Fold this sequence. Notes:
CATH topology of the largest domain: Rossmann fold
CATH architecture of the largest domain: 3-Layer(aba) Sandwich
Number of domains: 2
Distance between the termini: 20 Å
Number of helices: 12
Structural class: alpha/beta
Amino acid sequence: xxxxxxxxxxxxxxxxxxxxxxxxxxxxxxxxxxxxxxxxxxxxxxxxxxxxxxxxxxxxxxxxxxxxxxxxxxxxxxxxxxxxxxxxxxxxxxxxxxxxxxxxxxxxxxxxxxxxxxxxxxxxxxxxxxxxxxxxxxxxxxxxxxxxxxxxxxxxxxxxxxxxxxxxxxxxxxxxxxxxxxxxxxxxxxxxxxxxxxxxxxxxxxxxxxxxxxxxxxxxxxxxxxxxxxxxxxxxxxxxxxxxxxxxxxxxxxxxxxxxxxxxxxxxxx
Length: 270
């Protein structure tokens, strides 16, 4: 089974260009459709903040400004898609409620691509990242410079359900990779797991992998990032939000450390 539809949420701004280039690399690698989904600021999200006592004239002005921005963003996305020059690229603009349209597009896509800003909680697509990653539990690629499909992939493995889901969802990517390394830190995990069992699982599915046992305790993210650098990994595959989301937000957690790192592109699945 391969990936047939790659989705790239867009804000309709100049910064979308870099994200689209990365999404095209991923889509081209699989001959997949690239859905360029314009997710404008939603008027429905603004209304509760205005309240009944909000001045009518100011309210109308604010809503008109949002409508104009949405139209401008729609045109900007259309232009970017045309300039991208990928024949299987399709521009889609969402109407209010934007979150509902975004959810449906995500459910009908194999992978959703975001950039570093959205993944780190910055910019107009930060909420979209949280929605896709945590609420919709869709596979996400955080695209960084040097993203390529046929390079080296490091798979983080601790025997948990999050790591299992990420690894299984990433199988089409692993099958195309030139090199796959399975890495785990037994001393940093409360689970008992055997990296060789995962190597056997992958071999039965056409993926040749090697193992790397990471020595150390505590800082799983640091160990994984070090292993990724050592392997020259282009992509790191990992389960996301293995602890309650609030706990991860407050205390950091492996997921947040990976998102805030300057390591390779991340393929994450919750």
